[in-house]
Specification:
Elements lengths: L1 E4 L19 H5 L15 E7 L5 E8 L7 E2 L10 E2 L11 E2 L6 E2 L5 E7 L2 H8 L2 E7 L6 H6 L13 E9 L1 H5 L4 E9 L2 E2 L7 E7 L4 E6 L4 H12 L6 E4 L15 H13 L3 E4 L2 H7 L2 E2 L2 E9 L5 E13 L9 H10 L8 E10 L13 H19 L3 H8 L8 E2 L5 E2 L4 H12 L1 H10 L6 E13 L3 H7 L8 E7 L5 E5 L8 H13 L6 E4 L17 H28 L7 E3 L2 E4 L2 E4 H9 L15 E6 L7 E13 L6 E11 L6 H21 L29 E6 L21 H12 L14 H14 L14
Helix pairs in contact: 9-10, 9-18, 14-15, 15-16, 17-18
GO molecular function: iron ion binding; oxidoreductase activity
Pfam family, one: Ald_Xan_dh_C
Keywords: Molybdenum, Oxidoreductase
């Protein structure tokens, strides 16, 4: 990895902007993390699930062997547990009810039908084999076309068709489309993927008799939301539920909903007052875990002769799986697609319809990028096609269409408030880093080994930290509001930060400490972050939508600023100076040559109050505040990426030769963390582009149930990534921060497909369907050979593949 960071002068050694290794890495690199799989309790029972072998069927009978009685549970065994219902205020939304265990019907392969427990997982699985289930098969809707064609046996009772929700937008489309001189149409789509965090679903629950509480340890991104969900669907007061999220082995969105298995294990602990645990294995995750990314686009661009967009017409269909998940619903993906297709581009005519269709597959979850990977893929490939149509380079067309810096802040055609930045400058910098002229010269010369060189580019915006008004418009049953943080100084001069968000790899223990250090000057090794426990932390709706640093980090900043005058007042009294003369530096309160350690200030408050000033603030050295940005429609990170690839026409193999990133996430709290997030996201995006696919046969059977079949990129598939940073602070957030945790995963499919299409332009081949495997490349080249001689140069028109 190569980075270029234009660090602002005056950055404190441990404050905002400092390049500090993550504090949490020490325990993880030494195998000392605290994951649910590491935990043990007296009497702990392991849970296993019997899962449906069919995609769509009625359950007509269940027989349980005598020796398994009392240790096998069906839906009828759980009358006090409610179905998981994710309602929505969207007017076209059709509600689905997801039972904790399948009731009279199964709707995807792998849906839990029965639950067992035993001292070991192996014994629990043996008990599951003692259950026989009779099924009466129903029509299987394995894809959106089959689901939309159905006239009966819809996915859920009471539905009028198999469409979860339909959203529409129209802004000046007809008038502006009529002025177009060039019209380009493309069909573009992404295959279904699994999410594959290192740790799957992990949940352990027990009854705490001392506090009369159900305690649920779960690997979740949203502990406070899971508490709400468990209380609601088990019909118990929230004060009787405590949710604790320890170390979490990745999430990517998979762990920001209430899972059936979480509810089932919580029910067992509530009912039997014993500890129970369930750990999802990799095969369960691949078969039954929630899926993502399956989008289908029909794109029509209307432009002038130079390729300047006037209007865009988009039809988006999403395969939503069997159930709408709680609390975000399928409306989240649908709404994000509708609103984010225009991305960073400044056109004013827009017509779009997005639909989410129910299919006999696992439910559709918000995955890293939440619709934006798909919409970026669609708009960027459409712009590539438009550039070919008008005979210009793809980046020339983009530079003409990007929102210009003098237009900022800019409200785009879907009412996104793009807050700050220089989008064209980021693209120009990416082109400079990739050395466009050298790449084009290399293409002309040709490669000694016969491979073909291609260049791809993309620019995107990442809406981050969007809040109340946005989620309310999407109709979700839980709406994020203020994030809260508590800051308490300890008697010996350290600090405890408490926040309601939870880390699953973001480095919060480091970055939040850096924010506190920036204001209070306490050494970050003396700053402890407490998170992931509803019994010890203030409320937050959790970690998702690239919101944690902006929202909870902003709350930490506000709390520290509120605490600062109290510290200074005591310090000033101890120094014998006025409070306005005091500054905090390197753990001391300073006034000229005088200084007193913060530890002496905190000692005075807690241990030796006789040293305090008479008018000391009686609220002490502990503060809790709530925070949300002044504009809650989100802060907009942006990024340009470019890549050079080599395509082997003999084997279909694609090698990434160079990959550059120019990102702007506002004020950078820790460049190392930002770069790690970017590289990890790009690795996932490479998987979307070239490797990852969960195929199904016509009966809805998943065909990639192991990692021998479901291919992911590894270290040899991820190139050296060169990163440059811009810093344009957001005008709406504390210290100008913007979220960026999802960003790296958004652009790679568009960049890499653009590069491959560029490499193969002489063949008349254009790819628009993920994943782009060697097999697909060879098939397309073979079809091209059958149509015309491949020696014919510079053929630019071709059908998408």
């Amino acid at each position: 990895m190569t980075v270029s960071h234009h660090t602002k002068p005056g950055v404190k050694p441990q404050g905002v902007g400092a390049r500090i290794p993550r504090k949490e890495d020490a325990r993880h690199l030494h195998g000392k993390g605290n994951f649910i799989g590491n935990m043990a309790m007296p009497g702990l029972c392991e849970v296993a699930f019997l899962r449906s072998p069919l995609a769509h069927a009625r359950i007509t009978g269940v027989r349980i062997a005598e020796e398994a009685q009392g240790q096998v549970f069906l839906r009828a065994s759980m009358p006090d547990a409610k179905d998981i219902v994710a309602d929505s205020t969207l007017p076209t939304y059709q509600v689905s009810a997801q039972p904790p265990l399948a009731d009279d019907r199964v709707r995807f392969v792998g849906e839990p039908v029965a639950m067992t427990f035993a001292p070991t997982r192996a014994e629990a699985e043996d008990l599951a084999e003692m259950v026989e289930v009779d099924y009466d098969e129903l029509p299987v809707y394995v894809d959106v076309k089959a689901a939309e064609a159905a006239t009966s046996d819809f996915m859920h009772e009471g539905w009028k068709d198999n469409v979860f929700v339909t959203l529409n937008a129209n802004n000046n489309f007809d008038d502006l489309a009529a002025k177009a001189e060039v019209v380009v149409k493309r069909e573009i789509d992404l295959s279904r993927q699994c999410m594959l965090p290192m740790e799957g679903i992990a949940v352990m629950a027990y009854w705490d008799n001392q506090n009369s509480q159900l305690v649920v340890y779960t690997a979740t991104q949203v502990p406070h939301l899971i508490r709400t969900g468990i209380a609601e669907f088990l019909d118990i007061p929230q004060e009787q539920v405590r949710v604790i999220s320890p170390d979490v082995g990745g999430g990517f969105g998979y762990k920001c909903i209430l899972q059936q298995e979480e509810l089932c294990v919580a029910w067992l602990a509530k009912t039997y007052k014993r500890p129970f645990r369930y750990l999802e294995d990799r095969r369960e995750h691949l078969i039954a875990g929630a899926n993502t990314r399956e989008h289908y686009y029909e794109m029509t661009a209307y432009a002038d002769k130079q390729g300047r967009l006037l209007a865009l017409d988009a039809k988006v269909t999403i395969s939503g799986g069997a159930y709408s998940v709680w609390p975000f619903t399928v409306g989240l993906e649908t709404g994000q697609a509708l609103g984010n297709i225009p991305g960073p581009y400044a056109f004013r005519g827009y017509r779009c319809q997005t639909r989410c269709v129910a299919t006999n597959k696992p439910g559709f979850l918000p995955y890293r990028g939440v619709a934006r990977t798909g919409v970026c893929f669609a708009i960027e490939l459409t712009l590539d096609a438009l550039a070919r149509e008008v005979g210009r380079e793809p980046w020339e067309v983009r530079l003409d269409n990007l929102v210009q810096p003098e237009q900022m802040p800019y409200v785009n055609v879907t009412n996104k408030h793009l807050d700050s930045g220089d989008y064209p400058a980021s693209l120009r910098r990416a082109l400079e880093m990739i050395n466009v002229d050298a790449v084009r010269e290399r293409q002309k010369k040709g490669e000694p080994d016969g491979r073909l060189i291609g260049l791809g580019v993309a620019t995107y915006t990442e809406q981050s930290a969007h809040g109340t008004s946005v989620f309310a418009a999407w109709g979700t049953p839980v709406i994020p509001g203020f994030d809260q943080a508590s800051v308490k100084l300890t008697p010996d001069g350290g600090a405890e930060l408490r926040v309601g968000v939870h880390s699953h790899g973001q480095g919060m223990e480091t970055t939040f400490a850096q924010i506190a250090n920036e204001i209070l000057s306490i050494d970050i090794n003396r700053i402890k972050l407490v998170h992931g426990d509803t019994g010890q932390t203030p409320y937050s709706s959790g970690t998702y939508a690239s919101r944690s640093l902006v929202m909870s980090g902003g709350a930490v900043s506000k709390a520290c600023k509120q605490l600062l005058p109290r510290v200074k007042k005591i310090g000033a009294h101890l120094l014998g100076v006025a409070a306005d003369e005091v500054t905090l530096e390197d753990g001391y309160a300073c006034a000229g040559e005088k200084r007193v350690a913060i530890a002496e200030i905190t000692n005075a408050w807690y241990i030796n109050p006789q040293k305090l000033p008479a008018d000391v603030d009686a609220e002490g050295l502990e503060v809790s505040v709530g925070y949300r940005p002044k504009v809650d429609t989100g802060s907009f990170t942006y990024c340009s990426q470019a890549a050079v690839v080599a395509v082997d026409p003999a084997t279909g193999a694609v090698e990434i030769l160079d990959y550059v990133v120019v990102e702007d996430c506002g004020t950078i709290v820790n460049p190392l963390v930002v770069e790690g997030q970017t590289i990890g996201g790009i690795a996932q995006g490479i998987g979307t582009a070239f490797y990852e696919e969960m195929p199904y046969d016509e009966q809805g059977q998943p065909l990639a149930s192991t990692l021998a079949d479901y291919i992911m990129p590894g270290a040899t598939e991820v190139p050296n990534i060169r990163i440059d940073h811009f810093e344009t602070p957001s005008p709406h957030t504390e210290f100008g921060a913007k979220g960026m945790g999802e960003g790296g995963a958004i652009a790679p499919p568009a960049v890499l497909f653009g590069a491959v299409n560029d490499a193969l332009r002489a063949y008349g081949v254009e790819f628009a369907h993920t994943p782009l495997t060697p097999h697909h490349v060879l098939d397309a080249l073979e079809q091209s050979k059958e149509k015309e001689s491949i020696s014919r140069p510079n053929v630019t028109a071709g059908a998408t593949v």
